[in-house]
Amino acid sequence: MTSPLLPRAEASAYGDLPSPGPHRDAELHALLGLLTAPRTRISTVVVGHSRDAASRSAAAAFIEAWRTRGDRTVLAKVDWPETAASWLRAAVRFTTEEPDAWVVAAAPLGWAQMSRRLRHSTNWDPARTYGFASLGDSRLPALAGPATLQGMRGATAEGAIWTIDRGWVTHQVTAPSAGDASRGTL
């Protein structure tokens, strides 16, 4: 049995990954929109976050907003360190409950390690996982490994949507509103 951990040399090949910044209202609103869109049927979530201040704050803001939407439940809140021996304990806590979805606020490297452990050791489904802007980094799918994060979605700081598909982070281009004066010709 091989370890799912990302070797240090491999992680350092991607350079310094940014620390999560404070979440924005547009980001939180877009993330909530993804989870409450018609036909999603998501009412229970598990929220996970790294231990940095921005991720803790984003997770707390999400939990508060989720609970105020009526008939919505947070089954658990799980945190993990940026470096760990295996991430197994956090991975088991993250998946013990059977939520409709998982919500993640984390630094990219720690989430890459955690998601590798989740895929290796649990029944976690990345297609039912939603993340804050810090996880929309194009290096994340490469760090996590082939198909580890396939289908994960999230929101950018500006409120746009990102998706991980076949190893790429793609961003949904939002159409300008009818009253947008900045439109021009191409």
Describe the structure.
With about 190 residues, this protein is α/β, with parallel strands linked by helices. It has six helices and seven strands, in the order ααβαβαβαβαβββ. The protein has a seven-stranded mixed beta sheet with strand order 2-1-3-4-5-6-7, with helices on both faces. β1, α3 (about 55-65) and β2 form a beta-alpha-beta unit. α4 (about 90-95) crosses α5. About 35% of the residues are buried. Residues about 175-185 have low confidence and may be disordered.
Question: Which terms summarize this structure?
Answer:
single chain; 186 residues; alpha/beta; 7-stranded mixed β-sheet; 6 helices; 7 strands; globular; disordered C terminus
Brief sketch in words of this structure:
With 186 residues, the protein is an alpha/beta fold. The chain contains 6 helices and 7 strands; from the N terminus they run H-H-E-H-E-H-E-H-E-H-E-E-E. The protein has helices at residues 8-12, 25-36, 53-67, 88-96, 108-121, 140-144; strands spanning 44-50, 73-80, 101-105, 129-131, 153-155, 161-165, 168-171.
Q: What sort of overall outline do the alpha carbons produce when their principal axes are compared? A: globular
- Residue fraction in strands: 15-25%
What is the straight-line distance between the termini?
54 Å
Arithmetic mean pLDDT:
88
Fraction of residues in helix? 25-40%
Biggest sheet features: 7 strands, mixed
Count of beta strands = 7
Instruction: Walk across the major sheet and give the strand order.
Output: 2-1-3-4-5-6-7
Parts with pLDDT < 50 across at least 5 consecutive residues: 175-186
From the alpha-carbon coordinates, what is the Rg to the nearest angstrom? 16 Å
Q: Topology as H/E string?
A: HHEHEHEHEHEEE
